[in-house]
Amino acid sequence: MTDVIHLLPDHVANQIAAGEVVQRPASVIKELLENSIDAGGTNIKILVKEAGKTLIQVTDNGKGMSTTDARLCFERHATSKINSAEDLFSLKTKGFRGEALASIAAIAHVELKTRQEDDEVGTCIKIEGSEVVSQEVCVTPVGTTICVKNLFYNIPARRNFLKSDTVELRHIIDEFQRVALAHPSIQFSLFHNGSELFQLPEANYRQRIVNIFGGKTNEKLVPVEEDTAIVKIHGYVGKPEFAKKGRGEQFFFVNDRFIKSPYLNHAVSAAFEGLLKDKAYPSYFLFLDVDPKSIDINIHPTKTEIKFDDEHALYTILRSSIKHSLGQFNVAPVLDFDRDSTLDTPYEFSQKGVTPPKVEVDPNFNPFQNETSGGGGNSSTFRKERTSGNSWESLYNGLGGQELESSGMNQVEFESDEVTGNLFGFSDEKEAGSTTFQLNKKYIITTLKSGILVIDQQRAHTRILYEELLKNITVTSAVSQQLLFPLQLRFSTNEIEHLKEIRESLEHTGFIFSEIKKDSVEITGIPTLISESEVAILLEQLLSDLENDVPGAGFSQIDTLSKSLAKGMAVKSGTVLGPADQQNIVNSLFACKESSLSPYNKPIFITLTVDELDKKFM
Ligand code: ADP
Ligand code: MG
To answer: Can you tell me which atom of ligand 1 is nearest the CA of 62?
Structure first.
């Protein structure tokens, strides 16, 4: 019988290993950066072309390699970092497998130049698909430069699998930021196709975060500090009011290594419990130092997952230290989202200038009407003037038949069209004033002759504001509320450019910019519908919405702007609305050009006809 087992040639084994280590250009960057840091580099420069597909070059001023080491480092299991498996448990370095360079050299054209301090000259090695093609003596500064060209040149399937340059560059920037955040004392720079993306000077942790994420980040950070026998924690969490909709800036580092941990992430969320609005994620930059013996970083080839001995204790310590910080820095008490929102809404009258008292007569006053939500007639949180009577019903009736037909609204008539036990002798019109109520702080329910209308309050208000803002920007400008003290807000260079572009539109909505500088703006007036404390969040959201929008001037920009501002200003689900506000929303909604769909094309209301109800009782 013939033997069938044979050993794989090295270059094949290396290619297979490369599949695990190198998924995309960003993985190469990560491995090279880690090697440079392990080599004690204090200045690391990265050049990338076409998102790393054609060139990745990392230069460090670390300790360099001898000629023998330079040759050996491309061999599999060639590492200077461990000698025995035991060493794994006291690892202080990032690398240890001795796999990275061998893998990279198997799937790219690699050029290495390196020199140690005591050597007069350095070594230059070229290697292609695991084959050394040349080795020379060369003149080069102390440290190491590794140049990786034509990644995956010999594995077309992998090369085709790469995403667009934009996506691959995003991955590279992610890896870069993770490494740079963990090592603020090292200078880093990153260039793509000849232009500088990052130039990070030596700094402390806080400065490094700010240098990466922009000047305005500084005011958002709350320091976290904890020192226990199990773990030392330091770093920052973002103030809850700056929490973002997407999971953006969330970073855990364990012994200076970026890791992903859903479990620890949960601990952070738990600390923020009750402080965040729906679907908002806090940002965090947390550094955990633990005894290397108590973790196992070996479980994942790309080393972003980690196993802790005492996960449970870590969870508790992390949660309580963040809670403590949030409390200590007085972040928590200001953010009581459960407080009675009628006392504190964007539409507070207190924000307006003093107006002489007027005698007002409420034609809809009904002494027998029950005030359910505690909001009296005066506590109106809704700024809009009451539109004439309850005219919305007729407006609603007059709407084009199309959407009504589809929602079975053709047969629907309105409750107040019919006399329903006219107990107190009021006319029908007045009676209609009491036909709304709020469900679950989320829906406004109103009755129709042959059914009920359930209105999503947030979407309805967004639609109302959207149309009003559109009108303000394009036809008549809105009034502003003057600020007693001008508001200074900081923005990144990019954002400032954007703000300049939309300045005029914003001023039509009520904003007054007294100054736009290089990295900040001064605001002296804001729309009457918002409160000062909301301005920063609103503008930031707006800028990010505009950025994600398809670029293009003209109407699309005004539309996005109106949508974004309307979204930010609208009453949210969870807000208690008094009867007057409910009524106002209903009236204004049906005075809108389009009342059935929100600006984001979501249905604003649904109807339940008596027929449908009848069926349910069958
Ligand atoms: P590992 O980092 O797991 O040891 P690598 O394949 O990444 O494996 O690197 C192999 C060896 O090459 C390292 O252990 C180190 O001795 C040497 N080396 C790699 N990059 C550098 C560098 N930039 N400067 C100095 N030595 C380096
Ligand atoms: Mg390495």
So the answer is: 24
